[in-house]
Write a structure and sequence with these properties.
It contains two helices and nine strands. It has helices at 2-23, 118-131, and strands spanning 26-31, 36-41, 44-50, 63-66, 69-75, 83-91, 94-98, 114-116, 136-141. It has a five-stranded mixed sheet, covered by helices on one side. A four-stranded mixed sheet has the order 5-6-7-8, covered by helices on one side. A hairpin with a 7-residue loop joins β5 (69-75) and β6.
Length: 142
């Protein structure tokens, strides 16, 4: 009887941990074709935002990555100290970050990063930090 109880408790713990791991998923799905980013958490769509990705000559990489690191007030060393607030880096110098050129959202305009309205970038930045970077995925498709 004790063995059966121990197995039941162990099963419940494993089930709870699996459920917790699944509920921690945060995914930013970026479409280069539609210039949009859909943010899902626990499989539920939370946000749909317009973005700007790499303009001609400055491609945005396609693929899937975990978020690597964040920087609240980042400045680009490569592009004349350009502001990159609320940056969530996912591949080398590529990040999802805010832009003040909001009129260009919805069409390619960046040097390769995924740019968002500052309010949206702040929201995603906080979600990524709260969720945990290793459990935050950025997926970019054509």
């Amino acid at each position: 009887m004790r063995t059966l109880s121990a197995i039941a408790v162990a099963f419940c713990l494993v089930l709870f941990q699996t459920q917790t791991a699944l509920s921690a998923n945060l995914v930013a799905q970026v479409s280069l074709a539609s210039q949009t980013m859909v943010v899902t958490q626990n499989g539920v769509v939370k946000y749909r935002w317009r973005v700007s990705t790499g303009r001609k000559g400055f491609g945005t990489p396609t693929g899937a990555w975990s978020a690597k690191w964040t920087s609240r007030n980042h400045r680009s060393r490569k592009y004349n100290n350009a502001p990159m607030p609320y940056a969530v880096f996912f591949k080398g110098g590529y990040a999802v970050h805010a832009t003040y050129e909001t009129k260009r959202l919805g069409r390619p305009a960046s040097h390769g990063c995924v740019r968002l309205h500052p309010n949206n970038a702040a929201t995603f930045f906080q979600m990524a930090k709260s969720n945990g970077l290793s459990k935050t995925r950025i997926v970019i498709t054509r």
